[in-house]
Amino acid sequence: MSERRTVVITGAGTGIGEACARLFASRGARVALIGRRRAPLEQVARETGGLVLDGDAASRADWTRFIAAIKANGGAVDALVACAGGLGMGTATETGDDAWDAAMRVNLDTAFVSARACLPELIARRGAIVLVASIASLAAGPGVCGYTTSKHALIGLMRSLARDYGPHGVRVNAVCPGWVRTPMADEEMTPLVQHYDESLDAAYQRVCADVPLRRPAHADEIASVCEFLVSPAASIMTGATVVADGGSSIVDVPTLAFDRL
User: Fold this and answer.
1) Residues 190-239 pLDDT 10s
2) 217 has which bridge partners?
3) Mind telling me the catalytic residues?
4) Does pTM top 0.90 for this prediction?
5) Alpha helices (H) along the chain
6) Domain ranges (residues) in the chain
7) Which of 6, 95, 102, 226 could disulfide-pair with 30, CB 3.0 to 4.6 Å?
């Protein structure tokens, strides 16, 4: 590997992707910032010195352009952190074909196409991939069929990549956050804020009431997990699903009634 690593981050303009960009840059890495909206990427680039690559992470044509730009700027892909994602709201009967396709594209295709495009470089560099999944990869919330299905599929993608490319020295792992305070999660709090006429902070406390740590994560905390997974400290880890959810996934739901006695 080069003295200065290049880390490619999708969904780098906001949320976990933005936090990853700041953290990796602070550790001396080059960061390539990928996202569909140029303005947020440029803001992150001003603070990180990152390379702005606006486009669709699910587009093979855009990835041809991305890889060429990374190489032209003196970089090579040492790590990919796939943070691009979005919602897939609605039950199965409420989800039309276009909405289903959109959920798969933003949550699954972005990760697959990104990994496929970066793998030749990652094999040459014996690099690492982190797919940012969700606790929705492990359990189902209400009325989010597209999101739940696509996030579950990310775990299968991670395992397939880890199995096939481990012999080439490429490590692939997934991170499954719970609630994280990001702009997207803030929007998800809107129904609670409106229904209970409460603040955004109160809404987060409400959704975390049964989480053992009793709070959501900060994006920086998830970025730290991603940094660990692509670092030499995690050199034996591949094919792992790392849950970073404040303990919410360990709660035995049928026993919650006893907490209220």
Assistant:
1) 999 999 999 999 999 999 999 999 999 999 999 999 999 999 999 999 99
2) 180
3) 147
4) yes
5) 15-26, 38-48, 60-72, 97-104, 110-125, 145-165, 183-188, 190-196, 200-207, 219-230, 256-259
6) 6-178+219-247, 179-215
7) 6
